[in-house]
Write a structure and sequence with these properties.
Length: 387
């Protein structure tokens, strides 16, 4: 048995909140180290924030994102971490993941498929990375591999599907499976919608089965930029089974899910699958590090961990999702805008009554999870009325 511990940590980030975003990432990495995780997946564009919109085109945003990444490197000691940020390469800007291993940037993987429907407008700011292309990014006097890469960390092979990469028919995971990856990480910024969590769970579970890999999905959390609410779900699957679920709609800055996987068992499964081996010239597509994930003793055998709240298994999931999504959205809107409260126009009708109830539930649910003192602190208020 070759047992390692991996996990995903969802984060409640804010676009262009450089100090806050850096602090929350550092806190997440500290938590990962305390829990003895070896491989950590953080959400898509977690350094800059996902909702920067046209500011992604700003040289200052690109430069500061890279500077913040450099500042975080010491906090990754002993860890293998995915950190999302916008990156300029040649004449285009890409939605990318930096793979950081024990304080060193091993390489950059850009997103291959962009979300351009509904509320998503990624093709306005980014270019899709061409399948199979690889290059070298020259920055700050260093050469960093960039492109359609996989990573070998002490013999454990890691690849990426970045959010939309897993939602398309031509999933990048199929090519990764043909190149023998053991772990697929999916850093995402996938907005909440009714029934969407079930779809995510299916593609994570099916991905782990079809690709013969452990699969870690990590989403953003909260009302990140005002236009969308993210439920913060973390899902981990291995060999076609979901083995860990994180809590959704948390009022905390982060939500974590973790599990132990057996690399040897995964490779036995891979050998039984009818995977079409890649016939491409893959010279340079695997970046190697001698830093290996910590191998656990056999008493750490895999167990299924479900950290979801009880309502997730109840008969009113849709109603609960609506209430908790709006409550979290209102709470984040209040604290991130620096407002001192809400003004609700009461007409006596169902709509205004529902809004009043949701505002009250936002405060009640946040106090239940965080405590009254913490809510007062987060909202920047002197007190909250008892009623």
């Amino acid at each position: 048995m070759h047992l390692i511990r991996l996990g995903g940590i969802s984060l409640n980030q804010t676009p262009l909140d450089w100090d806050g975003n850096r602090h929350r990432i550092r806190s997440a990495l500290s938590t990962a180290r305390e829990r003895e995780l070896s491989i950590v997946c953080l959400p898509e564009l977690c350094i800059s924030g996902y909702g920067c919109e046209d500011m992604f085109q700003s040289p200052g945003v690109l430069r500061t994102s890279w500077e913040v990444l450099q500042e975080i490197l010491p906090d990754t000691r002993g860890l293998i971490v995915s950190l999302g940020l916008p990156v300029r390469f040649e004449s285009a800007i890409f939605d990318a993941v930096a793979v950081v291993v024990d304080g060193n940037i091993l390489g950059l993987v850009p997103k291959q498929h962009l979300a351009g429907e509904g509320i998503h407008y990624e093709p306005r700011w980014f270019q899709p990375w061409p399948k199979g292309r690889r290059g070298q990014l020259s920055i700050d006097g260093h050469q960093v591999p960039i492109g359609d890469l996989r990573f070998d960390c002490g013999g454990v092979r890691i690849g990426f599907e970045i959010c939309e990469d897993a939602w398309v028919s031509d999933r990048t995971g199929a090519q990764l499976a043909a190149r023998g990856v053991d772990v697929i990480l999916n850093p995402s910024a996938s907005h909440f919608a009714f029934g969407k969590d079930d779809i995510r769970r299916r593609f994570v579970q099916e991905g782990s089965r079809a690709f013969g890999a452990a699969y870690v999905y990590t989403n953003l959390l909260g009302n990140e930029a005002g236009r969308a609410i993210y439920d913060g779900g973390v899902i981990i699957a291995s060999e076609g089974k979901i083995i860990a679920n994180g809590r959704r709609f948390s009022f905390a800055d982060m939500s974590i899910a973790e599990s132990v996987i057996d690399i040897d068992a995964l490779r036995v499964t891979q050998s039984k699958l009818s995977l079409a081996l890649s016939s491409e010239n893959n010279s340079g597509e695997c970046v190697v590090s001698q830093c290996a994930p910590k191998v656990l003793s056999t008493h750490h055998a895999m167990t299924i961990v479900d950290s979801r709240d009880a309502w997730e298994h109840g008969d009113s999931v849709k109603e609960e999702e609506f209430t908790r999504a709006v409550a979290l959205g209102l709470f984040d809107s209040l604290r991130k805008s620096g407002s001192n409260g809400f003004v609700v126009s009461i007409s006596g009708g169902a709509d205004s009554a529902a809004v009043a109830c949701l505002v009250a539930l936002s405060i009640q649910l946040s106090i239940q999870e965080l405590s009254r003192d913490e809510v007062v602190f987060r909202l920047g208020m002197t007190h909250l009325a008892d009623d």
